[in-house]
Amino acid sequence: MIPGPFSYYRPATVADAVKLLSTLGDEVRPLAGGHSLIPMMKLRLATPEHLVDLHGIPGLKGIRRDGDRVVIGAMTTQHDLLGSDGIAKSLPILHETALLIADPQVRYRGTIGGNVANGDPGNDMPALMMTLGASYRLEGPSGAREIAATEFYQGAYFTVLESGEILTSISIPVPPADHGYAYEKLKRKIGDYATAAAAVVLTMSGGKVATCAIGLTNLHETPLFAADAAKAVIGTSLDAAALKKAAAAAEAIMSPAADARGPVEYRKHVGGIMVTRALMRAAGRAS
Ligand SMILES: Cc1cc2nc3c(=O)[nH]c(=O)nc-3n(C[C@H](O)[C@H](O)[C@H](O)COP(=O)(O)OP(=O)(O)OC[C@H]3O[C@@H](n4cnc5c(N)ncnc54)[C@H](O)[C@@H]3O)c2cc1C
């Protein structure tokens, strides 16, 4: 399929991008890696009249340390994340997750900003950002604001982004050096979106879970922050009863779509298994 007609703009600054996005009417979209938007346009599921390409804005790309946080520019690609020693050392779960996205071609073009701003429940980064306690910087006609990843997602493809706003960077607190982590993703084949996936970041103390955060991908119309599932394992040695409780608490908030990846009950069941596996693998990595 060929996309419908559109006009193309390539601003050099965030201010110019915001101006275009807020003055070109309702049918205008930012273009990042294009690996979600262009397929949607080819299928005519998206028919923007104007595309504002963010590739000409140099300040939107890059990874930097800011005290105890890592700040990642929205136009940083999954490939850039995988090539960063800093990410591999301080945020190894981000490296692990990026490697599970699609294939090298998609990762070479696809950006972290596009992945989290898209609002697709099948995208892997949003639930991870919730698990890591990340926040997003949004810049628009009324200035800049910072919003927690846990507050960003409102429905499938529906976020708190307002007209004219773009997501410019992501700020992630660096977990303690001795933390454990795992991103468990069940997919039908290499390169597929998740049938179900779970992210876990935890710390252990004296053989017991001291802190824990859990996020879920593609198990609801938005990514999920599974607070009760995490609570169920804190203070435990992750024995079978605690794992079962965590999986049940996670399943209680899931409401996946029945689609080619399986019926609802199956997806909830494997969602619980992803939580259990991620918890066990994370605990094994914590020191
Ligand atoms: C074959 C295939 C398999 C894939 N498998 C996976 C997978 O397993 N897991 C996964 O997570 N993803 C997967 N993807 C999607 C891929 O990761 C996309 O790159 C990603 O979802 C969107 O990033 P992008 O940079 O390509 O954004 P684009 O496609 O350019 O944009 C996506 C949407 O976000 C908006 N947008 C982009 N950047 C910004 C911004 N900075 N501020 C505000 N709005 C913005 C755009 O207007 C658009 O609506 C797959 C894609 C393909 C083609």
Defining traits:
287 residues, alpha+beta, 12 helices, globular, binds flavin-adenine dinucleotide
Description of the molecule:
- With 287 residues, the chain is an alpha+beta fold.
- 35% of the residues lie in helices and 26% in strands.
- It has twelve helices and 14 strands.
- It has helices at residues 14-23, 37-42, 78-82, 85-90, 92-98, 104-109, 112-117, 125-132, 149-152, 227-233, 240-253, 264-285, and strands at 7-9, 28-31, 50-53, 63-66, 69-73, 135-140, 143-148, 153-155, 158-159, 166-173, 180-186, 196-205, 208-217, 224-225.
- The strands form four sheets. Strands 4-5-10-6-7 form a five-stranded antiparallel sheet. The protein has a four-stranded antiparallel sheet with strand order 11-12-13-14, with helices on both faces. Strands 1-3-2 form a three-stranded parallel sheet, with helices on one face.
- Helix 10 (227-233) runs antiparallel to helix 11 (240-253) and helix 11 (240-253) crosses helix 12.
- The chain is globular and about 60 Å long.
- It binds flavin-adenine dinucleotide.
- The site of flavin-adenine dinucleotide has 31 residues, from strand 2, helix 2, helix 7 and strand 10.
